[in-house]
Design brief:
It is built from 15 helices and eight strands. By secondary structure, it is α/β, with parallel strands linked by helices. It folds into two domains: 231 residues, Aldolase class I (TIM Barrel); 77 residues. Helix 5 links the parallel strand 3 and strand 4. The structure holds flavin mononucleotide (FMN).
C-alpha cells in the first residue's frame, strides 16, 4: 500500500495536464524528487475507444518517476472498472479519481468536479474502480465544493474504502482565482480524525516551497502536501534548500536542453506536440538578461532540432561571456 508506506509529511507532484508528462517528471525526479508522482488526468471513456493510442501517451512512465499514481476521469463507471483492471499491469502504484477539474466542457458532461453534485454517479465510479483495482490503493482528488463550500462531500467520500483524498482548498467556482483556503482543508482533517483515522489527507493549493509545505502540514494537520504551479517557478521546489535562485543563465539553458533531450527520447515519433515543450521556456529561460528575447525566438521554432541549435548557440555566447 503505497500511501501507507510514505513517511509523513510526504510531498507529491500535482497532476497538470499537458505539463507533467514523463519527461518533466523525469526532470523533477533528477533535480529534487517528490515522494510521489501523479500522471496527467486520462479519460477512461477515451481509453475504451478507438482513440486509446493517443491517450496512452499520458500513461507513459519510467523507472525514475516512481512511485506513481494514474489519474483517471470519465463518465462511465464500467469503463473505470475496465481501465482499473489494466492499471496494475501497466506498473502503476495506485489509481486516483479526478473529481475536481473545473473545465467548463468537462463539467457540462457531468465529469470531474460535477461529481460533487452527482453523488450517485460518484458512488458508482468509486465502487467500480475499487472493484477493478486489483488491490491497488484508490484515492480521490477534489475541491471543497462546487459553487459553494460543501464539506458534506467529504462525509460522503469517507464512507468508501479510499486510501487517500487530495483536498484542493478552493471550490469549482473559484477556479484558481482566489487563494486556497487551508482552514477548510484543516476541517476535512478534523472530519477524517473522527470518522476515518486511517485515511490519508493531502493538502493542495498555493504551496511554493518545501519549507512552506512543511509549515502547512504542521499547521493544518495534513499527511501530505501536493505542489503544482510552484514547480513551474522553481524546478527544485521539493528540495530542502533550492539552489534555483543562484542558477546562472548557462546552467538554466543546460537544464532546458536536458529536458528537451528527454522529451525527444520519450516521444521520438512526435507523439506529443513540441508546443507543449515551449511552455517550459518560461521556467528555464527566465530572470536573466536576454531571457525574454531568447524566449520569443524559441516560440517561433518548428522543430526540436531548431530549438536545440538556438539554445546551444545561446549557451556558447554565455560561456564566451564568462571567459571573456
Ligand atoms: C496547467 C494545469 C493543468 C492541470 N491539470 C490537472 C489534472 O490533469 N488533474 C488534476 O487533478 N488537476 C490538474 N490541475 C490542478 C493541479 O493539480 C492543482 O490542483 C492546482 O494547480 C492547485 O495547486 P497549486 O496551487 O500547487 O498549483 C492542473 C493545473 C494546471 C495549472
Amino acid at each position: 500500500m503505497i500511501f501507507q508506506d510514505l513517511i509523513k509529511p510526504f510531498f507529491v507532484l500535482a497532476p497538470m495536464d499537458d505539463v507533467t508528462d514523463v519527461s518533466f517528471r523525469q526532470m523533477i525526479a533528477s533535480l529534487a524528487s517528490p515522494d510521489l508522482f501523479f500522471t496527467e488526468f486520462v479519460n477512461v471513456d477515451g481509453l475504451m475507444s478507438e482513440g486509446r493510442d493517443r491517450l496512452m501517451v499520458k500513461l507513459k512512465h519510467s523507472k525514475q518517476d516512481k512511485p506513481i499514481i494514474a489519474q483517471l476521469w470519465g463518465s462511465k463507471p464500467d469503463n473505470f472498472k475496465e481501465i482499473a483492471l489494466q492499471i496494475k499491469d501497466m506498473g502503476f502504484d495506485g489509481i486516483d479519481l479526478n473529481m475536481g477539474c473545473p473545465d467548463k466542457t468537462i463539467v457540462k458532461n457531468g465529469c470531474c468536479s460535477a461529481l460533487i453534485n452527482d453523488r450517485d454517479l460518484a458512488a458508482d465510479i468509486i465502487a467500480k474502480t475499487i472493484e477493478g483495482s486489483n488491490g491497488l490503493p484508490v484515492s480521490v482528488k477534489t475541491r471543497v465544493g462546487f459553487n459553494q463550500v460543501d464539506l458534506t462531500w467529504f462525509d460522503f467520500l469517507m464512507q468508501f474504502n479510499l486510501s487517500g483524498i487530495t483536498v484542493h482548498g478552493r471550490t469549482k467556482k473559484e477556479m484558481s482565482k482566489v487563494p486556497a483556503n487551508w482552514d477548510l482543508i484543516a476541517q476535512v482533517v478534523e472530519m477524517r480524525n473522527k470518522k476515518r483515522p486511517d485515511l490519508l489527507i493531502i493538502g493542495n493549493g498555493d504551496v511554493d516551497s518545501r519549507a512552506d509545505g512543511l509549515n502547512k502540514a504542521k499547521t493544518y494537520g495534513v499527511d501530505g502536501i501536493m505542489i503544482g504551479r510552484g514547480v513551474l517557478k522553481d524546478p527544485f521546489v521539493f528540495a530542502t534548500d533550492s539552489p534555483w535562485i543562484n542558477y546562472s543563465p548557462a546552467d538554466k539553458i543546460k537544464l532546458f536542453i536536458r529536458h528537451i533531450e528527454l522529451f525527444k527520447q520519450n516521444w521520438p515519433n512526435g507523439e506529443r506536440k513540441i508546443v507543449q515543450l515551449f511552455k517550459f521556456a518560461k521556467l528555464y529561460i527566465n530572470n536573466f538578461d536576454g531571457a525574454s528575447e531568447l524566449r520569443s525566438e524559441l516560440m517561433n521554432i518548428k522543430s526540436i532540432e531548431q530549438a536545440l541549435t538556438i539554445l546551444n548557440s545561446s549557451l556558447t555566447s554565455f560561456n564566451d561571456l564568462k571567459q571573456g
